[in-house]
Amino acid sequence: MSYSYPIDEVFWSKEEIIDVVSFYSMVEQAYESSVKKEEILLAYTRFKQVVPSKSEEKKLCGEFEKESSYSCYQTVKKARESQDNGRIKMSK
Questions:
Q1: Phi, psi of 87 (to 5 degrees)
Q2: Cα distance between residue 70 and residue 72, in whole Å
Q3: Which helix (H) or strand (E) holds 88?
């Protein structure tokens, strides 16, 4: 990994930063191997508690996708649309 996660060290607590980084990490894992549907959805719920604004979410996820080429939106969308409770695997 040769990029940094978009985080707000000024306004977020240490726990909030951990929650946001955990979500980004789950998105990466979905592309690089696979991730449990329930885990990515739980990580997204925690992310949304830290970043409730839709515009801020789009900004942060856009920055993350620009740096990593991994889409938060597509990953969450696939997890939500998945009919089973197994693992999801993203492809580039």
A1: -105, 155
A2: 7
A3: strand 87-88
Tokens 């695997």 locate to: 89
Q: pLDDT tens digits, residue range 16-63?
A: 999 999 999 999 999 999 999 999 999 999 999 999 999 999 999 999
**Residues 23, 44: contact at Cβ < 8 Å?**
yes
Mean pLDDT of 62-66: 96
List phi, psi (to 5°) of 38. Answer: -65, -35
Q: What are phi and psi of 9, to 5 degrees?
A: -70, -15
Q: pTM of the predicted model, to two decimals? A: 0.93
Rg (alpha carbons) of the chain, rounded to whole number: 12
Cβ(34)–Cβ(81) under 8 Å? no
Domains and CATH numbers, the chain: 14-81 (1.10.220.80)
**H or E element at residue 17:** helix 14-32
